[in-house]
Write a structure and sequence with these properties.
Distance between the termini: 61 Å
Number of helices: 16
Largest sheet: 8 strands, parallel, barrel
Strand content: 15-25%
Length: about 525
């Protein structure tokens, strides 16, 4: 007996919850006692048969399972109380009391199971950000933010350039004081001289209206203004100061991101919603009210901007929180109530793997739901760490989920006791580094190369199979295996490499493949 499947008899639908074989007898006893006490529950014993035989002998079945005599309390089962469920390669019998309808849905033969696909993207209004489109039919855009003092022109130019060259399609910079605002046009000019036309977004808090008014060159150099409805102004000043920023955007033909953040949420709005909730017959939790305040803060500000005259094609919304489940809930609420373009990001995601995992978990679910037009992974870098890591994580998230392709993917096994040699690890790193080094040339000369998949595997167990699935793959010998490395190209074994120069030979094979398939004049 292989196991048991639980059946929900309240509606006659099988839940498909598989019980471990060890737990079958206990589960059967419990279920039959529940039936005896008129709790409508039942267990379906499942008998795995190798040849699809029909089980007709109830006595054989009773003896083989060896539970019904004791469990049923002498209750006599009849043919009318038995149902059969036939599954591929499996025979199951559902024993039910007369008053319980447990007729299952029969499934004959294999069933076509579609590959999981993301929900269709929410249809949002397209917004042009300095030549980069967010929303509409545009691909999901990758963006990032500097952590330099914007007043330090050289340092900021260097970091913007690094982020852009790593693949950030939009870069945000802090504009927090007059010196920073004055530096913005010079930063823009230096980037242009470097041949970088990446759009710059100014991040404003508290005094954005003053900085934009006092520094019109800054207002003109930026492609978008990011403002926080929670701190753009307080009391009666809020609407006036918000309005000034919107009017500046209209005058210069710029877009605005209205970015609500639960760390600086509009307290007047939150207080009002909390008060209303306290008077409700069935009040919500404080967390639920806070999520609603986040959504309302973004939507009310967008409506206000539109009333002033800013077009919907100039508005991007975001509502960032630092908890994964809250972020998912907030953006689902927001997406259901607006067609504004949406910027996704988990704020204060954290450092290292925690930040990567939390951001990827939250954004991955939302993107799978069809929500989101641009993303940023907000990672806290290690002291002196590489700021471009957040760009790479954005790209890898979008590429692994199938939304975009940026660079060829290198698949490599994690290693085990069969791969005590470090050869496959060294080769995987060498190939990945080689691809990164060659991508600037390949992007110009080999269109489509970013879709290429490479496999570097460490032993015979999964090596040949995984290599066949890739465009080009190599299966290195594991511990105790013949010192030979078969190479597979487009699913077929093409050659076998041997000797100390496998890494260099495989690099050349990759180069030749790129040149042949993608027309790479830049291949060496």
């Amino acid at each position: 007996m292989a196991g048991a499947v639980a059946c929900n008899t309240s509606n006659g639908i099988h839940t498909g919850r598989v019980l471990a074989p060890v737990a079958v007898r206990t589960s059967m006893l419990t279920a039959m006692e529940a039936v005896k006490n008129r709790l409508r529950a039942i267990i379906i014993p499942v008998v795995k048969l190798s040849s699809g035989l029909t089980l007709r002998n109830r006595e054989w079945f009773r003896n083989s399972v060896d539970i019904f005599p004791a469990a049923s309390g002498g209750h006599e089962r009849t043919a009318s109380t038995s149902r059969k469920l036939t599954l591929p390669g499996t025979l199951a019998t559902c024993e039910a009391m007369k008053e319980v309808d447990c007729t299952p849905l029969a499934v004959e033969g294999p069933v076509e199971t579609p590959v999981a696909t993301a929900a269709p993207r929410n249809r949002t209004v397209a917004v042009d950000i300095g030549g980069v489109t967010i929303g509409g039919d545009a691909p999901i855009v990758v963006q990032s933010m500097t952590n330099t003092d914007t007043a330090d022109i050289e340092a900021t130019v260097a970091q913007v350039a690094a982020l852009a060259q790593a693949g950030s399609e939009i870069v945000r910079i802090t504009v927090d004081r007059a010196e920073a605002a004055a530096a913005v046009p010079h930063i823009r000019d230096k980037l242009v001289k470097l041949g970088l036309d990446v759009p710059l977004v100014g991040d404003f808090h508290y005094i954005g209206h003053t900085l934009l008014a006092d520094h019109p060159a800054c207002a003109a150099a930026l492609a978008k203004y990011r403002i926080n409805p929670g701190n753009v102004g307080f009391g009666q000043k809020r609407d006036r100061q918000f309005g000034k920023i919107v009017e500046t955007a209209i005058r210069h033909g710029k877009a605005i991101r209205i970015g609500a953040n639960w760390g600086s949420l509009d307290q007047a709005l939150l207080t009002r919603l909390m008060d209303d909730n306290a008077k409700a017959e069935a009040p919500l939790s404080a967390a639920a009210v806070t999520r609603e305040a986040m959504v309302q803060s973004a939507l009310l500000s967008a409506h206000q901007a539109e009333a002033i005259g800013l077009g919907r094609d100039r508005i991007v919304l975001s509502a960032k929180v630092s908890q994964v489940q809250d972020l998912i809930a907030v953006y689902r609420m927001l997406a259901a109530r607006t067609d504004h373009a949406l910027h996704l990001g988990l704020t204060e995601a954290g450092m290292g793997s925690k930040g990567v995992v939390a951001s990827s978990a939250a954004l991955g679910i939302l993107l799978q739901d069809g929500i989101g037009d641009t993303i940023r992974i907000s990672l806290t870098p290690e002291p002196g760490g590489d700021r471009t890591l957040e760009v790479k994580v954005c790209q890898e998230l979008l590429q692994t989920m199938g939304f975009r392709a940026f660079v060829p993917i290198v698949a490599a096994c994690p290693g085990c006791g069969r791969t005590t040699s470090t050869l496959f690890q060294e080769l995987a790193k060498a190939i990945q580094d080689h691809i990164a080094e060659r991508m600037p040339v390949w992007k110009e000369t080999c269109p489509g190369v970013e879709t290429m998949q490479v496999a570097v595997m460490g032993c015979i167990v999964n090596g040949p199979g995984e290599s066949k699935h890739a465009d080009i793959g190599i299966s290195l010998p594991g511990t105790g295996e013949t010192p030979a490395a078969p190479v597979f190209i487009d699913g077929k074994k093409a050659m076998t490499l041997r000797g100390p120069d496998i890494a260099d030979e495989f690099k050349q094979i990759v180069e030749d493949y790129v040149a042949r398939r993608f027309g790479g004049a830049g291949a060496v």
